């Protein structure tokens, strides 16, 4: 059962049995509303941490970005974007194994997430696994990753384009 369903079930359990839903249920409904709005605030703050992490990463603060993405993951452990972005930040910090692990988790959560394949490909190449990196780049392109598609079709991507 999801946390939202559990919270709603707990709040509804406070309703007196045999009573019409709107009579005597103000406290239970208020409790349910409070719990659900708190969960919405947590979901929003996970996105806020991801956005802050992106800003830090773009300004060169990879460690700060990793910390923000980690906070987002603590709030929402199924947030594939946070794992993929943390993987990219770890690559920028030369933690390539950690980057691959994070991208693997993002792909486990969402197998259609092109950015995670692209980011994992970057880390694999940094570790010298050109074949693995190329396979990930091609998978990212097959899922619609436009910047990787442009690169793959450029002179710089010829090595991968021609790899079988």
Automatic annotation (TrEMBL):
Domain of life according to the entry: Bacteria
UniProt keyword Repeat, yes or no: yes
One matching Pfam family: TPR_1
A GO CC term attached to the entry: cell outer membrane
Keywords in alphabetical order: Repeat, Signal, TPR repeat
Signal peptide start-end: 1-43
Record keyword Cell cycle present: no
PANTHER family per UniProt: TETRATRICOPEPTIDE REPEAT PROTEIN 6, UDP-N-ACETYLGLUCOSAMINE--PEPTIDE N-ACETYLGLUCOSAMINYLTRANSFERASE SPINDLY-RELATED
Protein name stated in the entry: Uncharacterized protein
